Amino acid sequence: MEFNWSEVALGTAKELKEKIIPLFGTKKAGENVGTNVSGDVTKYVDKVAEDIILKRLVPLGVNVVSEEVGAIDNGSDYTVVVDPLDGSYNFSVGIPIFAFSMGVFKGKKPVYGAIYEFLTKNFYEAKPGEGAYLNGGRIRVNEPEPGKEALSFYTRGRCLGLVRKVKRVRVLGAIAVELAYVARGSLDGVFDIRNYVRPTDVAAGVLLVREAGGIVTDERGREFEVKLSATEKTNVIAVANERLLKTILEVIESGP
Ligand code: MN
Ligand code: MN
């Protein structure tokens, strides 16, 4: 069976928006309602969002890998890797940076990725070999001059020397959004080497950055591979160009 993934993603994103935006910045949103498959706290808003995902995706008969419930194997060729709400801390405390992320795989190969920012209604999409798009218009990574980059990084205190090697540091608290920003050239790179990122956070963003002309690797500069798992934790580096990748890898290698 073939699917119109763009329709699936946008339909799901819009229903999510309707149901969760009324909770934005409320105490209720941040209430702890349990723990997820990775052992992290599930907030009330995560639960509301996850229920919508399951209601939308499970009836399609596809396999679903989602942040809170984990992996549902329906024996399909297609696996949809979703984070219903990336940046749920931001959401619950009223910081307007959070998004829906959905990556689709046929077997292990990526076939589609989408990220939707609920407040700006920015809808990012990519298909392998077809480029990356924002609201239907082609997007590309930025071409920053050396030392002029804008970078986000999550390192648990490592690699702080990078602050002096780039122009701007912007740590936004939602890696799906930050990957979309790398793809559109608003950030020049984002990396997380805390062994904390899950495939659900990055499944769409990795494809988006690559299709926008950027590079995505692990913490040693090897090609990043998205595992179809809800619990696997990993490191990721996404950058606009080789030079910034080299700068980051040098700092990581020389670090504590
Ligand atoms: Mn997330
Ligand atoms: Mn989430």
Describe the protein.
- The protein has 256 residues and is of the alpha+beta class.
- It folds into two domains: 134 residues, Fructose-1,6-Bisphosphatase, subunit A, domain 1 (Fructose-1,6-Bisphosphatase, Chain A, domain 1); 105 residues, D-Maltodextrin-Binding Protein, domain 2, CATH 3.40.190.80.
- The protein is built from seven helices and 15 strands.
- The protein has an eight-stranded mixed sheet, with helices on both faces. Strands 12-11-13-15-14 form a five-stranded mixed sheet, sandwiched between helices.
- α1 packs antiparallel against α3 and α5 packs parallel to α6.
- The longest helix is centred in the N-terminal third of the chain and has 16 residues.
- The model has no long low-confidence stretch (mean pLDDT 96).
- One manganese (II) ion (MN) binds next to β5.
Could you name the CATH topology of the largest domain? Fructose-1,6-Bisphosphatase, Chain A, domain 1
Write the element-wise H/E pattern from the N-terminal end onward: HHEEHEEEHEEEEEEEHEHEEH
Computed Rg: 17 Å
* Structural class by SSE content: alpha+beta
Q: Report the uncertain regions.
A: none
Spell out which ligands are present. manganese (II) ion
**C-alpha geometry:** globular
Strand content: 25-35%
Q: Averaged pLDDT, please?
A: 96
* CATH architecture label name of the largest domain: 2-Layer Sandwich
Largest sheet: 8 strands, mixed
**What distance lies between the first and last C-alpha atoms, to the nearest angstrom?**
50 Å
Name of the CATH homologous superfamily of the largest domain: Fructose-1,6-Bisphosphatase, subunit A, domain 1
Quaternary form: single chain
Physical arrangement of strands within the biggest beta sheet:
4-3-5-6-7-8-9-10
Number of helices: 7
Q: How many β strands by DSSP?
A: 15
The CATH C-level class name of the largest domain: Alpha Beta
Summarize the amount of helix as a percent range. 25-40%
